[in-house]
Request: fold
Amino acid sequence: MTSRLRRVALLALALLTVFTIGAGAAVAHLLPARLALWQIPRVAVHRLAAARPVLAAAGNPRGRAVTPGGLSARLSGTLGLPALGPHTAAVVANLSSGQVLFARDGSSPFAPASTAKLATAVAALEVLGPAARFSTRVVAGTASSPVILVGGGDPTLAAGRPPAADYPQPATLESLAAKTARALRARHRHSVRLGYDTYLYTGPLLPPSWPASYVSTGNVSPITSLEVDQGRLTLSGAPQDADDPGNLRPRSVTPAADAAAAFGSLLTRHGIRVLGPARPAAPAPGDVTIARVASPPLAEIVQWMLIESNNVIAENLARQVAIATRMPASFSGAAAAVTATDRRLGVRGIQLVDGSGLSPDDRITPRALVQLIILAARRGDSRLRPVITGLPIAGFAGTLAPGGSVFGAAGPAALGLVRAKTGNLNTVAALAGVAYASNGQLLGFAFMADRVPKNGLIQAGGVIDELATELASCGCR
Reply:
């Protein structure tokens, strides 16, 4: 009897195991394609490639170093493919020494698209420091004066609490409203008029070189010192309260007013009656700060901006550079401040009209992009390191993940071993970052094409993916 029970138990266990594996496979196949980056394990039918040493020292390659001739032989043919169009360039350098190993039109100006965010990131970290935070405040004066929400240029401010999984966790108007309500009750104020202050920035909210479609297609919102959720909206028109770069719905065209309205609703929820709609206002002499919230550290904001190519964050950071260097906090002032800061660091070849690269009038040379990468990676100075740690990772993260942009189709040799900032406009495809070559050498690179054939952006992105893969697989002697 005991033997029979044992056989029955073993059979039941075997059936349960088969059922569990089958159910897991079925659920995995039901996952949406963009979420299912981890494939169901399968038994390899070919011999597996040996893993590379993980901690090979930068600048201390195994065997012979990459040579200019080897790189030229490896890259030149791909750079000449028609999919990139007639205006292409490339620069590859030894990341440790800064020595340029390969250059084709490296000093020619190109439209950079979002690779321009490298210039903004370096300037912001240099001027403000990686620990800098941006505050959103509420000020109040006499009992008859309005309570004023003061925008501090925090590009990550949210209205309500975002999902706990979002990183970094931004400051919220919900927290600010709770603090404000407590402060008002301590002053025996239970009803207020509400104003909002956006005077930290100057100039137009949108530059003339941006098409209006940038807002309606979810690329950016008008740039103001007070906004929430980067102007992203839900289907109902409410602030989204989640970091969702895949939200391509039209963004708010009145972000400051929307933020103030959301704050008023939150004050009401916390027991403070708001009299009438919020209106633009400036603090009066004698007004004092009664509540404030602070952004995550700049290091985390830079990483956020780079990994998802966040245009609103980039434009705000450029204005923060302008404020810190006593220049006008406008599009032109911010672009001039970023350019001047990078030039002081020794980087030439940058001509910007905005901070995000959305303008087709921006120009950066491939050599300048590589110089920015080298600066951020240099030993003994970690201030600029978030530029490197925030770069998208080929095959895994951000705009280099599968489906993350027109890039994201790198070959196996590049997966996890290429980190780079993407950039694309209608006829522009660019990639700049770091590749870990097969001999253990770290290479800084920039590939740029700004006359891509019409409707050929995906093909051009694929060719640049191929160039990055060739670098990662390169012994190139």
Observations:
- The first helix runs from residue 2 to 30.
- Confidence is low (pLDDT under 50) at residues 18-59.
- Residues 193 and 275 are 5 Å apart (CA to CA).
